[in-house]
Write a structure and sequence with these properties.
By secondary structure, the protein is an alpha+beta fold. The protein has helices at residues 2-30, 51-60, 108-121, 126-131, 153-156, 165-168, 227-235, 254-258, 288-297, 300-308, 337-346, 377-390, 401-409, 422-426, 433-436, 452-462, 467-484, 517-522, and strands at 33-38, 65-67, 73-75, 78-83, 89-94, 132-138, 141-146, 189-195, 200-205, 218-223, 241-242, 263-269, 273-278, 312-313, 367-373, 393-399, 415-420, 487-489, 492-500, 503-504, 524-525.
């Protein structure tokens, strides 16, 4: 009898465990999941210190401001702001009824703590530490005082995610802190897990979110090693959309994806571009005539055809694309190989030994150190070929992202290929000034121009909100780029985003594309 009871008990326990497993599986299966493919690989579960994680965390930890689909700066965590007449004092009002995913309310103290934390602990936010002199909190109002006018602070604050003070004040080195999660957030979703083995960052719906309820329980962002793998994942139906910061869906894969009949394609002009940057501290890059010769040596029509496959155009010398407010017509970049050789000869760069490479003022062959990240390999090979035809040597040095950041900050290169992003074009004084002003810090900036005329122009922009003056300054900036060539734009591109036809509610802005709160709240299956 005892044996029968034991057997029956064992059977019941087994059945109970099976029932629990089935229930959990059904519960997980019932969860609605939105799936996003990306090439922005998370390399470390560092919420602040990892570049890719920093791109995603503004969903879970919203910045004060955001950009709408028309390019206007509107509130996000803050619902309004006020600025002093001299543009040095900014007061942001934090929206009420916002809660962290652990149930605690969002306060002005969280905002004050976060902005100061970035300025003190995050190298690419060093400008905050250098210019922010005082922070005051009065209820849900936070006032920042700067040591100089800062007209574009509302734009700057679209990129700094607000963190819960009660969590992060205990962390000694926020930039290096790592955890697989969960991370406390106050957006419609919080980061539940960063799974490097599975190649996924998983957002879960914030149980304390008081806004419009999202239709999805989870959002999974999966990163892929290359464009082909990501494209195949979409074509198979495993992914609902594709997003890579400031980059389009692979142009070569568009027609194949269209052929599935399952995706809509959104194509819009963008202010992001690839460009050649010069280390102006080194010769001969410091010579404007050399820069003009190099710019003339580039075969823009061919490069645009090869790299954009019909989704781009030859850029203008003013650097700022037509997709950006304040754009003015400047001379288009022109390919003139013979003209490039003549400019070099007239400037004293001669090939005295007839080996096909001109010599510098020191009598040595000019062989430039072309520093790139691997994602720019295709353009780099073309640039090397074009320069060689004009008599300029170049050795390509390809490094990973963090190495590139360090080398360019230490000016250990001659040329580099890099890119602008929509936010980067707006930062600092706007119109790409943040990439060139020598005083600006940041991972993607070159900070190579210390010309007083340019620096003064940036300060004038930052000191005024007068629209007429800003229009004039925008034109001055673009004329400066055209005349001085601190960077050479290679093409203007269109942004291409595919999204699943079976899902509606997609929202795209010029700043972050579909990776925004509007999409995460509004996306839902078509009924």
């Amino acid at each position: 009898m005892k044996t029968d009871i034991r057997t029956l008990t064992a059977v019941l326990v087994t059945l109970l465990l099976l029932l629990i497993t089935v229930t959990v599986s059904c519960s997980a299966a019932d969860e609605k999941v939105l799936r996003i493919a990306t090439l922005n690989e998370v390399k470390s579960p560092a919420f602040i210190g990892d570049y890719a994680t920093g791109l995603f965390n503004h969903i879970s930890n919203p910045p004060l401001m955001q950009m709408d689909s028309e390019g206007r700066i509107i509130g996000l965590l803050a619902d309004s702001f006020e600025v002093s007449s001299d543009n040095t004092v900014w007061t942001f009002t934090v929206r009420p009824d916002q809660f962290w995913s652990d149930g605690k309310p969002v306060t002005g103290e969280d905002v004050a703590f976060s902005i100061n934390m970035y300025g003190k602990n995050v190298p690419n936010a060093g400008w905050i530490g250098e210019t922010l002199t005082d922070t005051k909190v009065d209820g849900n109002k936070v006032t920042f005082t700067f040591n100089k006018p800062y007209t574009n602070l509302d734009r700057e604050f679209t990129s700094y995610s607000i963190m819960p003070k009660h969590v992060w004040e205990k962390i000694e080195n926020p930039n290096n802190f790592t955890s697989e999660g969960p991370y406390i957030g106050c957006g419609p979703f919080f980061v539940e897990k960063i799974d490097l083995n599975a190649g996924k960052l998983i957002f879960r719906k914030n149980p304390n979110w008081k806004g419009d309820a999202p239709s999805y329980d989870l959002v999974e962002v999966s990163w892929f090693k290359n464009e082909d793998a990501a494209a195949k994942a979409l074509e198979s139906g495993a992914m609902d959309t594709y997003w890579k910061y400031a980059s389009a869906y692979p142009y070569a894969a568009i027609d194949s994806l269209k052929g599935t009949g399952k995706f809509e394609i959104l194509e819009t002009p963008t202010s992001g571009m690839t460009f050649v940057g010069f280390n102006l501290k080194n010769e001969p890059m410091s010579d404007i005539n050399f820069r003009k010769a190099l710019a003339s040596a580039i075969n823009y029509p061919e490069l645009v055809d090869i790299t954009t496959l019909g989704h781009g155009s030859v850029p203008n010398s003013g650097f700022v694309p037509p997709a950006m407010d304040g754009y003015v017509e400047t001379a288009p970049m022109k390919y003139d190989a013979d003209g490039a050789k003549k400019i070099l000869a007239d400037a004293g760069y001669a090939d005295s030994d007839n080996n096909g490479i001109v010599e510098g003022k020191d009598g040595k062959d000019i062989v430039l150190d072309l520093l790139i990240r691997s994602s720019f390999s295709r353009e780099a090979e073309l640039i090397r070929e074009y320069l060689a035809a004009a008599g300029i040597g170049a050795d390509i040095r390809s490094v990973e992202d963090n190495t590139w950041f360090g080398l360019k900050d230490n000016y250990e290169y001659d040329l580099t290929l890099t890119r602008t992003t929509p936010w980067g074009m707006l930062m600092h004084a706007g119109w790409a000034t943040g990439y060139f002003d020598s005083r600006r810090t940041g991972q993607g900036v070159l900070h190579t121009v210390d010309d007083p005329a340019f620096v003064d122009l940036c300060d004038k922009i930052l000191a005024t909100t007068d629209k007429a003056k800003l229009t004039g300054y925008a034109e001055e900036v673009q004329k400066y780029y055209a005349e001085n060539l601190p960077g050479v734009p290679l093409s203007w591109k269109n942004d291409v985003t595919p999204y699943n036809k079976a899902i509606t509610g997609w929202y795209s802005s010029p700043l972050y594309g579909i990776m925004n709160e509007f999409t995460f709240i509004g996306a839902k299956p078509v009924v």
